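Need tokens for this chain, all 150 residues.
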Amino acid sequence: MPSPADSNVDDDASSNPADARSDATDTSPNPADARSNTDATSNTVLNAVIGAVVTVVLTFTAFSPILGGAVAGYLEKRDGLRVGAISGAIAALPILLFSLLSMTFLGLFALQAVGVFLLVLFVAFPLILLWVVGLSALGGVLGVYLAEEL
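Here are the structure tokens for all 150 residues:
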């Protein structure tokens, strides 16, 4: 027959459910956490693509990357710098491809214009990429700010 002291020890161990819960959660992963992390990633990419589409559609305005990044940040409602930068990187692809096609049709790939091509390739393209990604990141921060304030 167990002594009363032994039963108190058992009661102490069973009376603290936080200890029992922490042991259970430490040994087994929660599948809901993994699913929510995947959903957040897919929403981030989707919001960045929506922001990139806004940027490309509004390219005729001077600050379309800010507007596209703001849309992405507003939809994301958190981490605007990251979603805005992703949006800008996605939006820069069609802009750079259009520039490359324009150079092709203008004949800048001719042998006499190799210097101009290299200048555009190593100076203009990185500056365009920096401009679009930087302004989109700024727009993402502004979009998150607007989402929190409205």
